[in-house]
Amino acid sequence: AFGDVDNDGDPDVVITSNQGPARFLDNRSDQGSWIGVRPLEPSGANSLQVMARLDEKGGSQWRRARADGSYASANDPRILFGLQANEIDSLELRWPGGKQLRLKAVDLGHYLVITAPTLDSVVTP
């Protein structure tokens, strides 16, 4: 399973096997600037299939929230972006059904928990 187990902005790995101990591979690379997003539905449930677009001076990145893995395994459902710069131009999230949210001022180096807007329109805080 892949995910940011220690919440430091880089993906880690957990490996298990039948009748053996679990192994945790801690990624200790210096990633630099990063931002993570955990999209939720208004009910508080996890929201998979959310698309996120991050725009920065070096270009754009697209990611999708997903937890798929393999048999009896799941990956971290949060969206993680490694950045080229120390700031972003915008972060846009798109939920299934047309709900969108666009953020312009975002602090880097942590995970944001963002709930889908209740209106089917673009909201800019």
Identify low-pLDDT runs: 120-125
Mean pLDDT: 85
Envelope shape: globular
Sheet with the most strands? Answer: 4 strands, antiparallel
Strand content bin: 35-45%
Helix content: under 10%
Following the backbone from N to C, one meets helices and strands in this order, namely EEEEEEEEEE
Gap between N and C termini, in Å? 35 Å
Strands across the major sheet, in which order?
6-5-8-9
Q: How many individual β-strands?
A: 10
Q: DSSP helix count?
A: 0
| Radius of gyration, CA atoms, in whole angstroms | 16 Å
Q: What structural class is derived from the secondary structure elements?
A: mainly beta
Write the layout of secondary structure elements.
Layout: E1 2-3, E2 12-15, E3 23-25, E4 34-40, E5 51-56, E6 59-64, E7 79-82, E8 90-94, E9 100-103, E10 111-115
Parallel strand pairs: 4-10
Antiparallel strand pairs: 1-2, 2-3, 4-7, 5-6, 5-8, 8-9
